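seq:
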Amino acid sequence: MSLKDQVVLVTGSSGGIGDAAVSALKAAGAIVVGADRSPKEDQPLEAFYPSTSPRNSNAQPQSRTSHPNTAALMS
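struct:
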């Protein structure tokens, strides 16, 4: 089964098994969306998953409860 250009969501992606899954899926050609409740704060996301093609992008994790514009994030 080919994973090329398949979109895969990995929860718990910032550590352990999730981190390994993201790396393996990207190596297999998948478009990976990583999500985690508690991302590692001592390193930016880009350090874990650098952008390797125009289809890959990086996001900054945010807490909806501590963001100053919580209402805007929820809409």
